[in-house]
Specification:
This is glutathione transferase. The two termini are 29 Å apart. It contains 10 helices and 4 strands, in the order βαβαββαααααααα. The chain is 51% helix and 7% strand. Strand 1, helix 1 and strand 2 form a beta-alpha-beta unit. It is of the alpha+beta class and 228 residues long. A 4-stranded mixed sheet has the order 2-1-3-4, with helices on one face.
Amino acid sequence: MAEVTLLSLPASPFAMSVKMALIEKGVEFATVEENYRASGKSELLVKVNPVTKQVPVLLHRAKPIWESLVILEYVEETWKAQGTQLLPGDGYQRALARFWSNFVITKTGLLIMKRVGDEQLKARDQVLEMIRLMDSEWSKPEYGKPFVFGDKLSLADLALAPIASWKVTFETLGKFEFPDARTCPRMALWLDAIENHPTVQSAILAPDLNLENANIIQKLIKDNKIKF
């Protein structure tokens, strides 16, 4: 096995964030994809992550690191001297970067596509409010443009960047319309920069493939063949 190996799922936004971090740091890595259609977790995944049995898992010299937020910080700390610095040099901005990466990952809107009826509408409204909040906060002087802290990606950007892959799926399956530049100009600027960033483009699952993948997963969930 390679010195650095990432256990992933093709459409996992959390794994996409980790891939971006590794690419930005210039770390060579291999990827092992889980098969969501399989009847259970792979033997390798259960072995290296017996606690949650979830991806992503980063194997560095055969030692497993779990949970995307932990992995992102590990990547930055381990390869701090190379590539993009994913945490700002200023202490206050570092705290903000950690806050927003945690906020995005723990309050993600990915459940929208799995909900129905009033529950879906409630989740959609919560995500819209979260986007408006980020638009307001990221417009303040302590932040930068076009990314959260300027012209370089940070942990905060990486946490939310998989939206470039999931946006079409949200809009199609979740009946979710993202605010435009008139209502959320700061977020519109950020999203345009993210969608056109080469690291993001190389790390995400193409939006049309993500939608196809999500349709398959929804059917499997409906048929009780897999559970989330």
